[in-house]
Amino acid sequence: MADDLTPASLRFLSDAAHLLATSAPQTSAHLMIQRNSLMFSHDIPQSDAQRQHVCGSCGHIMISGQVDVLDIESDEARRKKIASQGKSVKKDEPRKGCRKRVTCGSCGSYTKINLPPANAITRRRLKQSSRFAAVANTPSISTPSNHSPAPPLEVARPSANASSKKRAKNRKQGLQALLQQSSNAKPSVGLGLSLADFMKK
Prior knowledge:
Helices cover 43% and strands 7% of the residues. With 201 residues, the chain is mainly alpha-helical.
């Protein structure tokens, strides 16, 4: 029966401690110590998130930036620090991730949390010949017989970066073609005059 009440007790102690964190910090810390001892007596492991949120020594709820300090040390910074002290750094040593160090503002103790290393970035590039083969093997789109056939599409050029002048010229030509099509598609109603014709002097 006591095991059934453990999650509810932990939740109650945690909620009560968080409610009293600003108004009564010592009471809040005492409740968190009771919560930690209850977890320890029932062999419930603490997650890294819980360890960095609550001080294991005094029970103070740590909020980085107010009184508590959060330091993040990368593997590269650690290697440089070891090298500057004159110790040798093993080249075959596996990569380690970052390390968080949260210092409690109430008692001064700190909690170290090791983070796993990030996955190595791998970039895949298609070979030039396979890219052009993929473009050539794409099926063509059939057009209905009552429409005129579309102009053939340009094959991708080897250089992906066209100059900005070429892009601007192509954009201008495309806009002019659209304007020409829209002016040809309009049927002439009446005398073919519009408001713009009367506004001209």
